[in-house]
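Database export, one record per block. Field names are fixed; values are copied verbatim from the stored entry.
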Amino acid sequence: MSHHHPHPDPDCEVLADVLGNAPGNGPTMPPPLPPTRLGGFLAAGEGLFTRADAWIERALPRDYNPLAQLGVLANAALLLATVSGIPLLFWYSASSHSAWSSLAELGPYSLGGIIRSVHRYSSDLAMLLILAHAVRTFFGRKFDGARWLAWASGIALIALVWFIGWTGYWLVWDVRAQWVALDSMKAVDVLPIFGEPMLRLFAADHSVPSLLFFVVFFLHMLLPLAIAGGLMLHLARLSRTKLLPDWRFSTWITVATIVAALVLPATNAAPAQMAIKPEAFTMDWWYLWPLQISARLSGGGVWLAALLTLGGLMSLPWWLGRRRERASYQATVNISRCFACTQCSQDCPFGAITMVTRTDGKPFPSQAQVDPDLCIGCGICVGSCDTQGIGLAWFDARQVTKELQDYVVGEVAKGQPPALALVCTQMDGGWDFFKLAVWRARLPGYEVRPVPTSGWVEPKVIETLIAKGARAVLIVSSVSADPYVREGDRWLPMRLAGTREPEFRPNRADPRKVAHVRYDPTRPAQLTDAAALLLKQERAPTADRPSRLTGWIVGSALTAACFALLLWVSNAPFQHPTAAQPELVLTFRAYGDWLDQTKVTAAAQENRPAHMRAASIQVNRTRAPIVIRIESDGVTHEHVIQPKGFKSDGASIGEIRVPLTPGAHHVSLSVATNPDPDAPRQTWQGEVIAERGRLLVFAFDGGNGFVREP
């Protein structure tokens, strides 16, 4: 816990003016560039979330608004998925031969079946919440500048959670897993990892490698541990973070997931059969959506699409965020006015302010220091400093305060005491998008002044304005449950209530002339009415708290809608884009002949010692390619397959597919171990029946010849 020093005494601003610089009289710096491009578009998207917050919080407290805590709810769902996955090991058999049956034998309403369904739907819920959290973060413009680490690590976590789910579906070994394995191996074969193509091993059921299946099982069990490390990185630059929601909320989503498991139990699809091309089945689109793309691409295309997508999303802070001079928007410290109260470091939402050893010799134990790598220029620290020793250069608190005081004094001298409205610009998407005319129309009778955030307003500013004669001071912030600066409107109400320093002092200003209102865009008249009542020094009536029955009804309806979407996407129809046309598949592994031996010349013999001249033969360690010929109904397909190995001395390995039409065909297969037209060939020929959606699989091995797979 950080050491807290007493806040300066009520007259500390006088001492600060003596010890520090006097308020400046020059104009403030121009506002900085907006932090992101497309600010208007992003603000419009965030406006939709804000309206949803407003509607939900009419019936539910903010602590139970799911849009207010998408991140921690996603963590709770991930924890539930992990916890429910562990007991599944009692029933599951990690083998391609028994995996499907070990899960299929679980009754949907048995203990194992319910746990299996909870495991699946909690995983789906985690992905739903993670994606919603990412979308809200994007539209909330929370990815630029110092927030790049949270964004980039968040995208990496999405990829990690998706991959864990992808491997989980492999382990079921049904038709979904069949396509997952085939498309995965198509991509893996592009990488120089294995000495031979892995895809050919998935042409027949008996050749599917059990060791690879165990590797996938191991990854699915181990990778969830990496999520913990990723979350630490994701939250590293935030203050006062929570990992999990309130225990009652966690209990609620756990019970809801169990209910979903009972309503629509998770079951296997048809078992994987490598010789059958499954066409239509239900699929969990939360994790298996890449099948719609990977089936249309080559292995290299899969990697290119994945890298472009992942790289594009992770680099979004650089191509959508603007490069800005830090001095143009970040907070700076006037050390001569810093009295080591530590309040700014406590209030900063991003941990950008630390207290360091004093450098100016004043009798205080420390001074504030801003870390330029962490500061986003939100201005909350300004509202924390009673001496205005920290602030934004472009919106200097002392200069702005003086301008407001001069305005009030001038209006009072005219006999027209003004009412001021300090409005958070983040509601419109930032300073450049602030709609001054619109806000003046919403607040008749008020002089509207924009501020970076409501947290920028320090109580002493309000006190001095009222002391100079202002009729009223209204501070307006957003009703958003997840504002741009996180805690932008959290500290001000506490300061006005006297529960957080710096406190509003009622002995210096009439509290009836001060109000803080969160603007609800779904009920704009509330702000206008509250502002009118403030001019009369009357308090707006406190909104009736919704009854518990209303909360239960709305909460249940939201939960039902969320899980209806979850279950529909989790079990939506899928039509595989691969044609159901039958194919003849030939997998092969054969060694070509050694190329001819070469005799060493006589001249070369003379250069050797006498005892070595008898060894007159030098062997060329290179194999010939093999030649495969496939004939179907008189049409010939010939393929020359080069040997593997750095010296081309290994086997020729691969797979050849030839499309067929449904019906009977006369097929002839032959393999020669060198390209000589007269070379001996191993041959198979006969009649085959091609059926829609089925593969005719033949395997060739140099020692055993052709074998037709069942």
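Remark 1: The chain has three domains: 66-319, 400-541, 583-708.
Remark 2: Residues 400-541 form a domain with the Rossmann fold fold (CATH 3.40.50).
End of record.
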